[in-house]
Each structure stands twice: as C-alpha cells, then as structure tokens.
Amino acid sequence: MKTKKPRVAIQGIKASFHEEAAFKFFGREIETIECTSFKQTCEVLENDDADFVIMAIENSIAGSLLPNYTLIRDYNFAVYGEVYLPIQLHLMALPGVKFDDIKFATSHPIAIRQCVDFFDDYPNIQVIESSDTAACAKKIRDEQLTDTVAIANTLAAELYGLNIIERRIESNKKNYTRFLILQKDKTEDSKKINKASICFQVGNHVGALSKVLNIFAELNVNLTKIQSMPVLGKRNEYYFYVDMEWKDMENYDTAIRKALKYTVNFNIMGEYEKNDKV
Ligand SMILES: O=C(O)C(=O)C[C@]1(C(=O)O)C=C[C@@H](O)C=C1
C-alpha cells in the first residue's frame, strides 16, 4: 500500500533552512507547503491543510525565536519532535558577479544576525532584511540582480542557479538551529519517549520557581532549556517554557505529578524522542 507523503508547512520557500530541516527529520518524501510567515504555517495546520509545521525555535548564535513560543501556546499545538540542523551560510550571486560588484546583501533577519562579524568588515555592503534565505536567492535569479548577493544555503544556490562567492560567513562555525515539529493534536505514538516540552506559571513569591525546578532535580530529570516570556498585560508574571529529558519514565511521571501542585496553567506541550544530533 502506498502511504501518503506527510504535508509539512514551512516558513519560507523550497530550499530554505526550514525545508532542509524538514528533509532531515522526515526524509525527502514530503510535500512542502510554502508559507510567508510563521503565523501562516500555524493557520495552515489549524485548517488541516498540512499535517505538520516545522518551526525554528533557537539558534546558537542569534538565540531564541521568542514569538514562536507564543504562537505554539496560542494555537495549542502539540510538539511531535525536534531536529537540530547545522547552519552554514554562504554568499551567492548570479554567475559572473564578483565580490567587488556587491552593493546589497539580502537574507532572513535571523540569518543576518548570524553573520554580523563578517559584515562589520565590509561596511560598504548594505545589508537588507527580507523574507527567507531561499526567497532572496530566487529573487536574484528572477530579477537578474547583478549588484546583490543572498545569504543562504547550498540547496538554494543549486536550485536557483547562483554561484557561491564566499563560503561559511557565519560568526561561529559551530552554528546550529533547533527546530520543533508541531502537530494539531497529540497522538499516541509507539515511538520512544525520553524528552518533553512543558509550560507553566508560578506565583510571584520567594522560591516559587526554584521549588518546581528542585522537584525535577530530585527525580533525576535533566532540564535542557528554560525560557521565560511575560504574560501579556500582567506585570511580574511569566510563562516558563521548560524542556527536559530523563532515563526513567517513572521518575518523569512522578515529577510532573508533583510539579502540578506548585504551578498554574500547567501544560505538557509535547512528549517525544530526543533527537539532538547536529
Ligand atoms: O530563511 C530560512 O531559510 C529559514 O528557514 C529561517 C531561519 C530562521 O527562522 O531562523 C532558519 C534557520 C536559520 O537559523 C536561519 C533562518
């Protein structure tokens, strides 16, 4: 029986880093649904026009993509998995264009932030934020721009027929982005579960957060990330987004049961298999 290809919504167009990340997680046999914003990827999933969204959540140089935490919460999507992608950023231009011809460099703002050191050395190049990295490469091809380069990946150079004129311009060579795979509803899957993403609030009093974090420490559950986001319109109130991993499922279950007593608006956003190989 032929199984249907998963439909995966990405922010950006084909050959963007989101598509590369989707290939790494699902393999090449997917249907890519191109979207112009992260919000649109969520709408597409909400309307059942995609089976999954793949969403960047953190880059090792540029940091967290904070609005994406709020989107996941607002849409109440389930985290189905994670994937880490090494991000190698190249300057690419139409064939024949030389470095000295460059007046403009275009890319996604998060990609630009990963290359600030490079552009510090070339103040004559005007850096312009645009949509995703691949769309910048495609625009150079479509409009035959001879004074502009895109900062993008090798997939984009190949697909849109550009030459790479400067390789690996990211500020730190150990550069990676973590992506979350989201689905509309939680599914009972038979896959191995050893990591979770949860979200909660605590009261604004002495030791409130440390009380919760200690529960996980005492039960040998390792916290891999904590991110706080202000609760809209409420001064000194925060959502805490916490990722954690464990060896013993029973310990995790006990910790969750205990943590529930000391938190409000507690939500398990997803339980999934750790997949943090870069
Ligand atoms: O523009 C792209 O190619 C993207 O997939 C976006 C994005 C991001 O949103 O962080 C993905 C990974 C890289 O960190 C740079 C840009």
TrEMBL record:
The keyword Membrane does not apply. Pathway: Amino-acid biosynthesis; L-phenylalanine biosynthesis; phenylpyruvate from prephenate: step 1/1. GO terms for biological process: L-phenylalanine biosynthetic process. One of its GO terms (cellular component) is cytoplasm. It holds the Pfam family PDT. It comes from the Bacteria. This is prephenate dehydratase. The keyword Lyase applies. Residues 7-184 form the Prephenate dehydratase domain. The lineage of its organism: Bacteria, Pseudomonadati, Bacteroidota, Sphingobacteriia, Sphingobacteriales.
